[in-house]
Structures are given as structure tokens and as C-alpha cells.
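User: Structure please.
Assistant: Input sequence and predicted structure:
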Amino acid sequence: MLNYIVHHLRNNGKFSKRIKKRYEIFWLDPQAEQVRNTPMTRHDSIETWKAAPYWQRRLSNKYNAREFAVMHGFQVPELYWKGADVENIDFSKLPPYYVIRPTVGHSCNYVFVMDNGQNLFDKKHYTHEKIIAILKNEVTKTPGLEFLIEEFLENEEGNHAILTDYKFYCFNGEIACLYVIKRLSPKSGYGIFYDEHWNQLKKVQFNYPLWLDQKAPDCFNEMVATAKTLSKSYGMFVRIDLYATNKGCVFGEFTPTPSMGMNFTSFGKKLMLDYWDKYCPGLI
């Protein structure tokens, strides 16, 4: 009974309902997948990008999101390969460090952070044949799905390791908070919340144990400017994920329905609603 009460309190309220409503509007539409998976490029005009109802759905395709970030002048990881014909991946042309991720998905599912044959996310070794079999199975099950093989970004110290996540919760150019996550695996790690001036905030979500006494990355001001610019162009609430690397701030992805609005603290829900009502009034 106690667990039920805790779950109910964490996952209900106006903010959770708004996120769930957005999910329904975005993804229960019969045209949703066509909008999301229509390939876009950095050379398309902003009018072309926006020529669809709830055009932000295009940016839930991680390839399109890359192109959108580049169009706005921001860095993305180098792209080594893209496609659905995964059996044609030529691993001999890849460096020993690379990242594989699907164009559509969440929670780091089917993401490989490869270090000389080992996936740092699960600490297992994978043959090229095994990787292809896993990717092919997903492509077969999900129409329109492609995979990206990208540069394994080095951290600010110049090392290949699982990067710290910098997740900016943004409202039409304004930053409500930043969630900094020291990720150990897709489902484990430590986290802490800050405002845009690197002042620590109370916990906004319950996702990870507290991670204290963190130093702002060298490129923090660049990250704030990047998040604000992309958020303003997005035009409504979105979480923007960025990385601090040895070449500065690098864009990761957009998340329009973070955690489906669940697992937020009472402070976090109020913070999100205050920013939503002030900077995105009337928007889904």
C-alpha cells in the first residue's frame, strides 16, 4: 500500500498530465511516424522544418536532431555511418572507439558505447556479427528505424569514458534547471540539479542518488547558450541533452516527454509548471 501511495504521489498532478497529454497528441496521431522519420537536412529552411503539425516531432528522430543542431551552428559527434541495411556496416573502417544508437528510442536502449570491442554500458564484449544480429532484429521489428554510428566523444580530460550527461529542462529559451548525471550504465548513476548559474537546486526528480560537490565544466557558458538557442527555436518545453568534451559543448538529443512526466518531486513539479505557465502559456 505504501509503495502504491508513493507511486501515485510522484506520478500524478498537472505536470504529469501535461506530459502525458503531449505524448498522446504527438504519438497517437496516425501521421506521427511519417512526420518523425521524414529525413531532414541542415540545408532545409526553417519553414520546411516547420511545415508539419507539431513539427517538433521531427526532432525526436536523432538524425534529424543532429541536422537541426548543425543548422543552428552547434557541434555534433562525427557521423561514421547511417542506415537500416545494418548487414552492410564495414567495421574495418571504424576506429576502435565508436557509439551506435537508434534514430528512434529512449532510455539508452540498443545503444553501444564501444571501446575496443567492449560495450561500456553493460561491460560485455560483442563480435561484429553479434552487433549486426541485434541491430537487424530491431530494424525488422520497427519500420523506419535506422541506426547511427558516431564518434565516441572524449571527455574534457581527453579520455574515452561514459560521458557525464547535462540535461537542460528548457521552456522557449529559458532554462528551468539542469540535471547533471554521472552515468555508470543506462539505468544507474548519480545526479545533481543546478540552475543556469551553477547554483545547486533542490532535487527535481528521484531518478538517481545525490552526487555532491561537482565542478562546472569548462564549456558551461557555451552549454547554457546552446540550450537557450535550441530551446527558443524548439518553441515549447523540451529537455536538451548536451555533453562537455575536449572540443567544447556537443549536442546530444531532444527529449519532449522526459520520464513521461513521472518521478518528479513536488519541488520539481512546481518548478516545471511555473516555467511552463510563464514562458509557454497555452502550449502543449
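Helices lie at 2-10, 14-27, 32-37, 46-49, 62-71, 128-141, 220-234, 266-279.
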